[in-house]
Write a structure and sequence with these properties.
It is built from 10 helices and 7 strands. By secondary structure, the protein is of the alpha/beta class.
């Protein structure tokens, strides 16, 4: 993918959409293969290619934010973040930069359709966005992490210091004038997907608990409804299936089942928030850079060190 990105950058420079000092910055998220060596090779072959290597795998969101910190620290006018799997259309960058030239600080790359997805992937993805929206998380439908950010927007995003990251929901919080660019997503070109259903669920949980307290409110509503339901059954003396409760013991068991189930769910949701608060209070660096081809290293400024220059 490296040569494709370089070729695209040169096209954009030729069209006057990018300056001659523009770069392609790869972030190696502590991979166990030869990714960093490939980046170094590209750096030696193409003057436009730069690289940042994290000391260990920190997760997609942390790696992406590290790259944005690095770009902001270097003082680039704008950045376009994109995955290296080749699915996101490079041609959409032209329109993104045109919108940026018109004065938009944030330009979201939005999929025009999901025809390349399987039925299961398409259904779960749509459910993902609807769930986030229902829980009060502001996010752009069918948008992942393909976006343009101006330097001003990057610096504002870099000022956010939370450890639990969900950039799709954090970028809209930054504000500034924004717009969308639609594109058709292709089949994966490089590598294999590292986002199975379990990780999508984890990402949804992170997004909801990092940006909304609606689940806590939902617990209260569910608890009240459960108590009301149990009281109703006890008063009329029947089971949910219409059979009479034979004894006080059966009534007690029914009540216990209902209330214990509701309590377990409530404890789990509250525990998720407590865990998030626990991780935030540690104030650990969200990433550690081991190597960089750029002149400055984007330390995690939100945790109190040198990348504070970027924000």
């Amino acid at each position: 993918m490296g040569p494709r990105f370089v070729e695209k950058l040169r096209q954009l420079v030729g069209k006057g959409l990018c300056g001659k000092g523009s770069s392609v910055v790869f972030v190696n998220d502590g991979s166990s293969d030869d990714t960093w060596q490939i980046i170094l090779k590209l750096h030696s072959e193409y003057p436009e290619v730069e690289g940042v290597c994290l000391s260990r795998n920190r997760g997609h969101q942390n790696a992406l934010l590290c790259g944005l910190h690095q770009v902001a620290l270097e003082g680039f006018d704008a950045s376009i973040s994109i995955d290296c799997d080749g699915q996101d259309s490079l041609d959409a960058m032209d329109e993104m930069l045109e919108r940026y030239a018109e004065g938009f600080e944030v330009v979201y790359g939005v999929r025009s359709s999901r025809e390349t997805d399987t039925w299961f992937k398409r259904t779960t993805a749509q459910g993902f966005y609807k769930l986030l929206s229902s829980m009060g998380v502001e996010c752009v439908y069918n948008h992942a992490d393909y976006r343009l950010l101006s330097l001003q927007a990057m610096r504002a995003l870099c000022s956010y210091s939370e450890v639990n990251l969900f950039l799709r929901g954090m970028v809209p919080l930054v504000g500034y004038r924004s717009t969308q660019v639609e594109y058709a997503r292709a089949e994966r070109v490089a590598g294999e997907s590292h986002y199975p259903l379990s990780k999508m669920i984890h990402l949804a949980v992170d997004g909801i608990t990092s940006l909304s307290i609606e689940p806590i409110r939902l617990i209260t509503k569910t608890g009240l409804a459960t108590v009301a339901f149990a009281l109703l059954l006890l008063l009329i003396g029947v089971t949910p299936f219409g059979k009479a409760l034979a004894s006080a013991t059966s009534r007690l068991l029914l009540t216990l089942f209902l209330l214990c189930g509701a309590q377990l769910v409530a404890i789990g949701v509250v525990g998720e928030y407590v865990g998030k608060a626990y991780m935030e209070t540690k104030s650990r660096p969200r990433w550690v850079v081991s190597e960089s081809t750029l002149g400055k290293i984007a330390w995690d400024g939100a945790r109190g060190d040198r990348a504070g220059d970027a924000s």
